[in-house]
Predict the structure.
Amino acid sequence: MRKGILSLMAVGLLAVGGLAACGNDKDNNSGNSGNAKKPKVGVILPDSKSSARWETADRKYLEAAFKAAGVDYDIQNAQNDKNAFQTIADQMITNGVNVLMIVNLDSGTGKAVLSKAAAAGVATIDYDRLTLGGSAKYYVSFDNVKVGTLQGQGLVKCLTDMKAAKPLIAELNGAQTDNNATLFKQGYDGVLKAKYDSGDYQKGPDQWVPEWDNAQAATLFEQMLTGNPTIKGVLAANDGLGNAAITVLKKQNLNGKVPVTGQDATVQGLQNILSGDQCMTVYKAVKKEADAASELAISLAKGENKTVSQTVHDPEGNRDVPSVLLDPVAIYKDNVKAVVDDGYVKASELCTGAFAAACTTLGIK
Ligand code: BGC
């Protein structure tokens, strides 16, 4: 709760500062303002398969924010290729970005890119994923431990609704190289451990999914289910991994009988909730994340030094990184409408074919 208020305050402050900072582009360009530079921001997104969000939400909202501020930008996607990630960063630096915003593919390559940028006098922001041991000036994300807590609580709620007795739980974690996946796990294991310890739940297979790869997740879950046919609940770290588990459960006619969690409120995840195959997802208002990050990027590009009210501790670099952390929201069937009302997903994408009836019942239009 306290954190939630803090994050709202942080965004509020940014909004006010941001307006003052962006109104002056023309003066800056004509050299009227001493140390001001014409902002050019580079953004590197991680891939387009581990979650639909990067291309359908982050790119769209970042573009809109930069356009609205009249700032030059270059948004590229590394398509899960670490060499490409570094090449894109090199090109952006050569092409004169003065701020670089990255979603790292792992902390090692992220750190190398951040150091190169610093050496070239380019300010940096860690967007969504913290680069451990890195040097970004700001970190903009959600409260990722809370994301995991909501997932753990969601699974407990769905299992309780089903009156599941001593359910055996499988965990499909994200990529071990993504600090967020560690934080999500910290959150949901915090909830589930108490259940395992009390004997209410049984701990089953628990695996990281390399690179959040959905196909590998299906293979892993198939093996989990073969080895443990009595799995009664699946903690899947995002909607893509959840869908992989659902695909496997469907083959055994177990979909809808074994609750599965998710994250990102993707169209596919929400449709799986509407059909009853997925128990919940976590909605992260990416527009707020993109807005907060782009405001900080623009201010950095202008040589300003904005203060934000939160920090996140980087255990590897042993430093407190100035941060903006937004609040995630748990979504179950009865509040899927909230995601549509927020403009994140369109009713026309969600309520297709077999899903139209559920949308009507839930008042989604
Ligand atoms: C993001 C999630 C996303 C996952 C896979 C995480 O770092 O926070 O929203 O589902 O990466 O792309």
Notes: Confidence is low (pLDDT under 50) at residues 1-35. Residues 101 and 125 are 5 Å apart (CA to CA). The longest strand covers residues 319-326. DSSP finds 14 helices and twelve strands in the chain.
